[in-house]
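User: You have something folded?
Assistant:
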Amino acid sequence: MELLHLKYFQTAAKYEHMTRAAAELNISQPALSKTIGRLEDELGAPLFHRQGKQIYLNEFGKAFLERVKRIFLELNEGALQVQDMNSPDKGIISIAMTLPHIMPKFFGEFLKDHPQVKIKHKQASISEMKYQLENAELDICISTSPIIGENIEWVPLREEEIFLSVPPTHRLANHKTIDLREVSDERFINLSQGYGFRDITDKFCKEAGFTPNVAIEVEESWTIQPLVELGHGISFIPNLSILRDSAPNTVRIKISHPVCKRTIGIAWNPNHYLSKAALEFREFSIEFFKHKVNEYII
């Protein structure tokens, strides 16, 4: 049983389609089918249900796939460990985080003391973070809601307040605090449904007794505050998005009711090998969000 054949099987299981799997592996479809057939002969059991070029894992295939995943995971972990032992001050850290405004400051501070380290940042939802942590595709995740999993550690870093953001000419711009019910008839600008920030702010509105009139939905969070500045609506803004050197020309108002806060935390897989660089990044993250971040926000 060769590792190459196991890789072919894993790719076929991923796509459940011989032609697509063969294209990713850069081999012909008949060659892939023949290899899978030889593997099944060696195991003495079929691994797929077949319907033309479409294939589906059967109970044998599903059980075998879990073992194959572990094999490749261990090989990857071993390679990471050897590379880390050979070059402890270098290394690559795979990270996902959902705080785009503070991210440049955050990474910049770490790289000041670790100039040889490379950072690979991936955009991911909470569910994607969970999957990628469990499969050792990420080293560290920093999220705005807990990541729960059997092989995941999630530690709170900071409680973040969320404010109301209005244009300078808005009728409420001179208010210091506000009950969220006072803006139940306003036009809101927010992220599209499915984003974590949209979910939590919709929840705040529900607690205040109304469903927000979201007049503009966007996919990129950085577009929200410019739209508020132009007077197209109001929005929510988290504290870590209000930076001293690039604060939007909007007015932030503290929300007295309901309590509008979220918890930022850091997650990792304790069964995944973390390099020296990744371990130092984890410790740096805890310290940064506890103290250093206050230098950058208003």
